[in-house]
Amino acid sequence: MQKLGEFKLPNFFNYPPYFTLQPVRETREKQIQLWKELIIDFCRTQKIFVIALEVDFPLFSNAAIERSLSHEAREAFLSALVSDGRAEWMDKGHRKCLVLWHRIQDWADLIVNFVKENGLEDSVMTVEEIRSGVESRGTELHGIDRTVLMRALKVLEHKGKLAIFKGTSADDEGVKFSV
Amino acid sequence: MAGNWLPAAQLTGSGRPVLQPGEVECSLLSSVDLFSEETPSFPNLKAGVVILTTHRLIWVQESTTSPTAIFIPLSAVTHIFSLKRSIKSMFASPRFRFQASLGEKGTKGVVVITLILRGKSDIESFVEKFWEAWRKKAWEDGKKSGQEASGSGLGSGHGSGVDGGLAVRMPVVGVAGILRKEQEIWENTDKSLQEAFQDLNALMNKAKEMVTLAERMRAKLLSGSTSQATGTNDEENGTKEEMQELLLSVGIVSPVTKESAGALYHQQLSRQLADFAKIPLERAGGMINLIDIYCLFNRARGTELISPDDLLRACSLWEKFDVPVMLRTFDSGVMVIQSKSHSDFEVFTRIRSMVTTPDALRAGVTASDAAMTLGIAPAMAKEHLLAAEGKGLLCRDVSPDGFRFFVNLLQEVDADDIFLVKDYGIYQTWVKVISDAR
């Protein structure tokens, strides 16, 4: 079976029509569904948060059968993810897409669990520590996109579970948990 | 309908009269009443189409769902009354009368029949044509040539000797003899010249002989191919078949023309086309390009060609009649003639078996591949493929290599587990073919 780095590709990745946006409604719906699953699966395992449409994305072309997705097709598939709430456009021109294999709320729950498991209920951490610190190593939070993380933290702040405070520069924002 | 006064005329599936051998249509009139003023028991026929042929006067009732028809053989007509001119006739619908002895050999007696033309028709030209057809006695020609044909079929090679045997030959002696011989040659030449250029009627008669000849050849070929199919070699059979087809495709004996049909032109043309299209449609598998039928139809009509516009109008009239064919326009704008019994299902079955062969699974099919497999024109094949795609049977692949179609595997994949390949079905077959090819 074909692989993309560590990622195992499904069989239909070698099916040429998979790379042509199908005009027939029913067929296209199924095609979009399969692409959504594949994109989410790939991004989760590869920890990819942002897909830029104008930059080569490994999933969007298959050298083995010499096929690649058109810009229109890429946008269609990502738009489908956006309308499912599993992705967000980062700009109005739809050039960059933020993929949320966990919804923001789910990320927030993950943070709460992480805090509880590590006994950090009343401690202070920097945002950068959550993303790449020793404590988060081996969890899903490790290597999380900063934008996603900040939005999850904001959700928790609203609920009064933590307080975000600014440091001297943008890099060292801190978090005071109060779970 | 007509009691036992008048015999029923046979009609084709689309409501056109079935003509006898050698019979040609002369004129058509719509909304005509046919009755007898003096014989009350004679049927009173209202608002039908009257078709005058060289052999018969046919009256067709078209308003009912299944058209019915009766006819009066022109041979039964004993007198045609000339048109009355009076002040009264200026205002009433034009009418004219003729006398005919009806029934088997005139057993019903002589009846004066009146035709009333309710539509806007030129009665004078109709009566003129009626007169002409009656006077020509074309039905007798038909019988005669029929006898001739059967006669010469039995004893061939004796036809030419008759004239020479009867003429008394003068001896060629002296100057007078030479002169007479010269005179004879000159007279003969003159006679044949006159014969050849006499008038168009003579030419028409010759044409009729040619048609008879062609028909006889066809009959001979048909009987030949059945009786000695085993004895002859393939090449001979091939030429025979070709010849047969050639003869079959020249042959609308009585084409509907603007001249003969007048206002009914498109309607009648439409019916004739419906009858004509049956055979080519069968051969093409139930669907045929409009352009192809245009060529075939005009070829069969010989010199009475129709314009593409007339064809289109004739086709679009089919909706109104109960005919076994229909005009179909594909999404792409391609127009085809399709028999109503033709089903897309059958075509889809063939397409499905075509795209599930190992080669097609791997590389897909193009419209020209499909055209070759299905034995139809590439444009038609593409329409079929697009229709199959619309039904979810196929998926398209557009790439720099071209436009190809694959069997639809997307529907076979389980969206909840995209890595799952079931142990059965076309997806599994495809996976196997792909991994074998590597």
From TrEMBL, chain A:
InterPro entries per UniProt: ESCRT-II_cplx_Vps25-sub, ESCRT-II_cplx_Vps25-sub_N, WH-like_DNA-bd_sf, WH_DNA-bd_sf
Family, as annotated: Belongs to the VPS25 family.
UniProt keywords, alphabetically: Protein transport, Transport
Name of the protein: ESCRT-II complex subunit VPS25
Coiled coil: none
GO cellular component, one term: ESCRT II complex
Keyword Translocase listed: no
GO molecular-function terms, A-Z: protein homodimerization activity; structural molecule activity
GO biological process, one term: macroautophagy
Gene: LOC101265760
From TrEMBL, chain B:
Annotated localization: Cytoplasm; Endosome
Domain GLUE N-terminal: 9-146
One MF term in the entry's GO annotations: ubiquitin binding
Main location: cytoplasm
Keyword set, alphabetical order: Coiled coil, Cytoplasm, Endosome, Protein transport, Transport
Top-rank taxon, per record: Eukaryota
Entry's Gene Ontology BP terms: embryo development ending in seed dormancy; protein transport to vacuole involved in ubiquitin-dependent protein catabolic process via the multivesicular body sorting pathway; seedling development; vacuole organization
GO cellular component: early endosome; ESCRT II complex; late endosome membrane; plasma membrane
Record Pfam families: EAP30, Vps36_ESCRT-II
InterPro entries per record: GLUE_dom, PH-like_dom_sf, Snf8/Vps36, Vps36, WH-like_DNA-bd_sf, WH_DNA-bd_sf
PANTHER family (UniProt xref): VACUOLAR PROTEIN-SORTING-ASSOCIATED PROTEIN 36
Subunit structure: Component of the endosomal sorting complex required for transport II (ESCRT-II).
General function of this protein: Component of the ESCRT-II complex (endosomal sorting complex required for transport II), which is required for multivesicular body (MVB) formation and sorting of endosomal cargo proteins into MVBs.
Protein name, as recorded: Vacuolar protein-sorting-associated protein 36
Phylogenetic placement of the source organism: Eukaryota, Viridiplantae, Streptophyta, Embryophyta, Tracheophyta
